[in-house]
Amino acid sequence: LGNVPALVVGRRTDVLAWTPMGHALLAGHISRDVIRRYYERLPAGSYLGFSHVTGDHYPEGVQGLVKLYESSSNPVTLRTRDEVAEMIDDFEIVEPGVVYVPNWRPDTPEDAWENPERSIVYGAVGRKA
Known about the structure:
The chain is of the alpha+beta class. It has four helices and five strands; from the N terminus they run αβαβααβββ. It has helices spanning 4-8, 29-41, 59-69, 81-87; strands at 15-18, 47-53, 92-93, 99-100, 121-127. Strands 1, 2, 3, 4 and 5 form a five-stranded mixed sheet that branches. Strand 1, helix 2 and strand 2 (47-53) form a beta-alpha-beta unit.
C-alpha cells in the first residue's frame, strides 16, 4: 500500500472514496486483500464509497474501455455484481446496496436512468461497524 496507510492511520477518517479504482485491481484474492487492509485501518463508523466497472448487462458498452487500458500498467478487470459485493463485504453495505450508480439514491425520480446498466458502473457505500 506504500504511503496510503499513513493517510488512514493516526487521525480519524470518516470517509474513504475508492472511486474509480476497484477495476484497476488485478483479478483474484489480492484485490480483496487490498481492500481488507484499508478496512482494518479505518476507525469504526467510517464509510467506504466504492465503484467498479462491469460488463454484466452492457458488455458492448465497456469493450472500448477494456481495449483502451489492456496494454497499460493498469488494465481494467471487469467484475460481476456479486464479485463487487464480495470485494467489500467486510463493510456493512448501506441501502440500496451494490447497484448501478444512477440508481444509488437519485435525488429525484427524474435523476434515475431508464437503463442504468448503460452506466457500466456499480456503486456502493459500506460502513465499518
